């Protein structure tokens, strides 16, 4: 099972992202754009996990993040990773209004570490992946000509554990567990 923890996007955010993707599609030949319905914030990618570990993993996440607060997030500007060299990912930034997202991420990392997962080596950079650059030139000049949509402020009262299935047409996701935030 390929698993990851994520925040699902509410309908107003998905609608804004769908409109943005329509404006971006003509600019990014060689970019495989994500379906707006599938866009999520990855909190932690785990990779291949034995199904037998699912119950313990779920219990650890639930107990480790049970006191975390509900989130207030805001969409931001457009960009591409990595900052230098050939871009591989086109994204839109997310900002954490009160630090609750950073606290959730830290609590989840600690819970996963207790389950034997090493800490993520890259710093947590909240963003929503809009597309993956497969070939061709750098999309950054085209992105600079596209105005980011008006920021959308939204809340999240839960996060999820998802299973990812990779297909030639892109990833498909199946929700495995939901975790409430206070």
- In total, the number of domains comes to 1
User: Roughly how many Å apart are the termini?
Assistant: 29 Å
Going by CATH, what is the homologous superfamily?
A: Cyclic phosphodiesterase
- The structure class reads alpha+beta
| Distinct helical segment count | 4
Can you name the CATH architecture? Alpha-Beta Complex
- Major pleated sheet: 5 strands, antiparallel
Helix content: 25-40%
Key terms:
four-stranded antiparallel sheet, five-stranded antiparallel sheet, alpha+beta, Cyclic Phosphodiesterase, Chain: A, 182 residues, 9 strands
Would you write up a description of this structure?
The chain is of the alpha+beta class. It has 4 helices and 9 strands; from the N terminus they run E-H-E-E-H-E-E-H-E-H-E-E-E. The mean pLDDT is 94.
Secondary structure layout:
Elements: E1 2-8, H1 11-24, E2 31-33, E3 40-48, H2 54-65, E4 71-81, E5 89-96, H3 100-114, E6 127-133, H4 140-144, E7 153-156, E8 158-167, E9 170-180
Antiparallel strand pairs: 1-3, 1-8, 2-6, 4-5, 4-7, 5-6, 8-9
Helix pairs in contact: 2-3
Outline of the structure:
The protein contains four helices and nine strands, in the order βαββαββαβαβββ.
């Amino acid at each position: 099972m390929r698993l990851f923890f994520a925040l699902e996007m509410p309908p107003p955010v998905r609608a804004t992202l769908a409109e943005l993707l329509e404006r971006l599609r003509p600019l990014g030949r060689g970019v495989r754009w994500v379906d707006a319905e599938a866009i999520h914030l990855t909190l932690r990618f785990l990779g291949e996990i034995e199904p037998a570990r699912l119950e313990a993993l779920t219990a650890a996440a639930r107990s480790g993040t049970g006191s975390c607060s509900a989130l207030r997030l805001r969409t931001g500007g457009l960009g591409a990773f990595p900052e230098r060299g050939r871009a591989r990912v086109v994204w839109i930034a997310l900002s954490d209004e009160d630090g609750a997202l950073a606290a959730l991420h830290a609590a989840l990392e600690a819970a996963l570490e207790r389950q034997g997962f090493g800490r993520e080596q890259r710093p947590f950079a909240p963003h929503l992946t809009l597309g993956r650059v497969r070939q061709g030139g750098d999309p950054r000049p085209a992105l600079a000509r596209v105005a980011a949509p008006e920021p959308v402020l939204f809340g999240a009262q839960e996060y999820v554990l998802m299973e990812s299935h990779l297909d030639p047409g892109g990833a498909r996701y199946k929700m495995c567990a939901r975790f409430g935030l206070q």
